[in-house]
């Protein structure tokens, strides 16, 4: 997991430089957001999806049983398919919560940031997003929904995978991919107006949630089972 953390941390270095260039003090910006109840509500709303992950990881048998009962059984024929559908619903929920939190002024600030981001920042953002989504796509290609969505804990046999992306030294390639994607968005949204809307702060903490997820899985299981997620 050290390699995962190193990749995520190193990818933040160009963003720290960008923040300095546009006059954003990350420590002050984060401190300001911590005293805003609406920011906390947004962060907690985003975190609900990962709380669901934690519950399924901790109590897989209970989830498997409930996934076969109404209404969850409407989402899929297997527990991991139900989990996958809940994940999609959760992503829509997260996006909606962030947009609601931003309000009209915050959404306008985000659009302005995208319109006025210089070409090198767009290049950096695209590099991060492409790398992140390559890892994400490789996860689904190599182990499928059954591997990604805790199938090995939900009663399925998930074959061991040693090909890409599990052969590049990352313990949680998908989580690294998502964090890189978030950092790609963050690169474009580092403007004083977006910072006042507290959007970069949300994205930064959002990335941190994946670090907690990775730690939970590593501590809660070992060896092949942990690696397959």
TrEMBL record:
EC numbers: 2.1.1.71
Transmembrane segments: 38-59, 175-192, 198-216
Compartments, record wording: Endoplasmic reticulum membrane
Keyword annotations from UniProtKB, A to Z: Endoplasmic reticulum, Lipid biosynthesis, Lipid metabolism, Membrane, Methyltransferase, Phospholipid biosynthesis, Phospholipid metabolism, S-adenosyl-L-methionine, Transferase, Transmembrane, Transmembrane helix
Pfam families in alphabetical order: PEMT (PF04191)
Gene Ontology CC annotation, any one: endoplasmic reticulum membrane
UniProt GO BP: methylation; phosphatidylcholine biosynthetic process
PANTHER family: PHOSPHATIDYLETHANOLAMINE N-METHYLTRANSFERASE (PTHR15458)
Superkingdom to which the source organism belongs: Eukaryota
Broad class of enzyme this protein falls into: transferase
Membrane topology: Multi-pass membrane protein
Name listed for the protein in its UniProt record: phosphatidyl-N-methylethanolamine N-methyltransferase
Record bears the keyword Mitochondrion: no
Claim: Magnesium is one of the keywords in the record: no
Any GO MF annotation of the entry: phosphatidyl-N-methylethanolamine N-methyltransferase activity
Pathway annotation: Lipid metabolism; Phospholipid metabolism; phosphatidylcholine biosynthesis
Organism whose genome encodes this protein: Prymnesium parvum
Family matches, as InterPro entries: PEMT/MFAP, Phopholipid_MeTrfase
């Amino acid at each position: 997991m050290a390699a995962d953390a190193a990749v995520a941390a190193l990818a933040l270095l160009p963003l720290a430089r960008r923040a300095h260039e546009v006059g954003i003090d990350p420590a002050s910006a984060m401190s300001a957001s911590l005293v805003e109840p609406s920011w906390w509500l947004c962060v907690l709303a985003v975190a609900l999806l990962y709380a669901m992950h934690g519950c399924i990881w901790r109590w897989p048998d209970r989830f498997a049983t409930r996934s076969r009962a109404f209404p969850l059984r409407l989402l899929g024929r297997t527990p991991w398919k139900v989990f996958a559908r809940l994940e999609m619903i959760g992503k829509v929920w997260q996006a909606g919560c962030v947009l609601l939190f931003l309000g009209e002024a915050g959404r306008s600030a985000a659009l302005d940031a995208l319109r006025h981001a210089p070409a090198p920042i767009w290049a950096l953002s695209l590099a991060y997003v492409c790398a992140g989504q390559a890892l994400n796509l490789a996860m689904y290609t190599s182990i499928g929904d059954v591997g990604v969505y805790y199938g090995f804990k939900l009663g399925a046999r998930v074959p061991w995978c040693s090909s890409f992306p599990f052969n590049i030294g990352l313990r949680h390639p998908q989580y690294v991919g998502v964090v890189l994607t978030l950092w790609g968005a963050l690169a474009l949204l580092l403007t004083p107006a977006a910072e006042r809307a507290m959007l970069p702060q949300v994205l930064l903490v959002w990335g941190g949630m994946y670090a907690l997820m990775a730690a939970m899985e590593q501590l809660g299981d070992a060896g092949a089972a942990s690696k397959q997620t």
